[in-house]
Design brief:
This protein has 67 residues and is α/β, with parallel strands linked by helices. It has one domain: Rossmann fold (3-Layer(aba) Sandwich), CATH 3.40.50. It is built from four helices and three strands, in the order H-E-H-E-H-E-H.
Length: 67
């Protein structure tokens, strides 16, 4: 969020995508947090939405959905 603030972006303008337990705080702080389908349950629960797995191009899916 520090970089977003430096760039003059608000929280609602930040998208975070993660798949590991270490990503939970990032997903919760972002305006939109997306978890990969293959992420552990705790990660998926922390996210606003769940996208496809890495093998299913989940990052591309969520970008297409939101843009």
């Amino acid at each position: 969020m520090a970089l977003a603030a430096r760039l003059g972006l608000g929280r609602s303008q930040v998208l975070a995508i993660g798949d590991g337990l270490n990503d939970i705080s990032m997903l919760r702080k972002a305006g939109v947090g997306a978890a990969m389908e293959n992420a552990p349950e705790e990660v998926r629960e922390a996210a606003d939405l769940v996208t496809g797995s890495c093998e299913e191009s989940g990052v591309a899916q969520v970008l297409e959905q939101l843009l």
